[in-house]
Amino acid sequence: MIEIDGAMGEGGGQILRTSLALSLLTGQAFHLRRIRANRDRPGLRPQHLMCVRAAARIGDAQLQGASEGSRELRFEPGALRPGHYEFAIPTAGALSLVLHTVYLPLALRSSEACDLVLEGGTHVKASPCFHFLETTWRRYLEEIGIRIALRLERPGFYPRGGGKAHAHIQPCAQPRALQLTPARPVNQITIQSAVAGLPLSIAARQERQASERLRATGLPLQSRVEEWPGGPGTMLALILHGPPVATLFFALGARGKPAERVADAAVDEALAYLDSPGGVDPHSADQLLLPLSLAPGASCYRVSAVTRHLLTNADVIGHFIDRPIHIDGTLGEPGTVTIN
């Protein structure tokens, strides 16, 4: 049984999700201790517990320690079972985290397409929102041969949650290697400003603030102001168009947070990316690492910033498979990922 310290590196839930995915893919059991040790509320929260239960269900696994608040987990995988699954997080926990846990085993170890119905938060803090999955994440996966169709049935914002999304995962014999150097420039920006259960004027203010600040980039701007069902909640997304895929940055509203500050948070991230040499965005950089570590042939891609998530994910992968991964660059600065 592989021993993993959940306090290593960034010490968050990504260690758990990568371990679960690789356990299902390699058939190796693991023991994870000090789960999410570096978070304000350590241990398994509802969304992390659902990741564990989802992995156990698709992989017929044996579990010890699968309870809310648990800081230790033993996971022994069985045979993977493709099919139709429904996973519901009873809070506003991010449903994207459950998808990230199970998509790769279902894609690479199934001979038939699999369907997931996921419920929980679709737009919550510190997790990829649905529109990032649709715009950026799944399109990077297409570049390496993994095809996932996504559909948002209803949005779910913190603290109510209640969002619902569908994922259709095609089988893939093996992912392809990826070469993305040098980085290529952004050629257009789309502003998507949306509210759910709140006045449309809030979305208009978000869009106006973002437009005013982004005009200085000199890039062509397009805008969409939208009203969604459900809520309450508000979101502003900035889609930076350019090869190989569009990159999305987003920010969420919160009680007492002016619409202009929501826009500023997303614009600050986008401008930091535009001021960098470019490449794969920080959120996609560590998410690409896992499938590419299983692809035959060498991969190499530039990243706009080396993050602790990226470095930690490389460490976790090394516990399960023997694949040289080199990350050149200083933390917080641009770098290059090479998988030999």
Please name the defining characteristics of this protein.
single chain; 340 residues; alpha/beta; UDP-n-acetylglucosamine1-carboxyvinyl-transferase, Chain; Dihydrodipicolinate Reductase, domain 2; 4-stranded mixed β-sheet; 8 helices; 16 strands; globular
Describe this structure in words.
The protein is of the alpha/beta class. It folds into 3 domains: 2-179, RNA 3'-terminal phosphate cyclase domain (UDP-n-acetylglucosamine1-carboxyvinyl-transferase, Chain, Alpha-beta prism); 188-275, RNA 3'-terminal phosphate cyclase, insert domain (Dihydrodipicolinate Reductase, domain 2, 2-Layer Sandwich), CATH 3.30.360; 277-340. The chain has 8 helices and 16 strands. The chain is globular. The model has no long low-confidence stretch (mean pLDDT 96).
How are strands sequenced across the largest beta sheet? Answer: 1-2-4-3
* CATH fold-level topology of the largest domain: UDP-n-acetylglucosamine1-carboxyvinyl-transferase, Chain
Question: Which word captures the global form?
Answer: globular
CATH superfamily of the largest domain: RNA 3'-terminal phosphate cyclase domain
Strand content: 25-35%
Round the mean pLDDT to the nearest integer and report it: 96
CATH architecture of the largest domain: Alpha-beta prism
Uncertain ranges: none
Number of helices: 8
Distance between the termini: 26 Å
What is the CATH first-level class name of the largest domain?
Alpha Beta
By secondary-structure content and strand pairing, the structural class works out as alpha/beta
What radius of gyration results from the CA coordinates? Answer: 19 Å
Strand segment tally = 16
Let me know the largest β-sheet.
4 strands, mixed
How many domains make up the coordinates? 3
Helical content (DSSP H or I, runs of 4+): 25-40%
State the order of secondary-structure elements, H for helix, E for strand.
Answer: EHEHEEEHEHEEEEHEEEHHEHEE
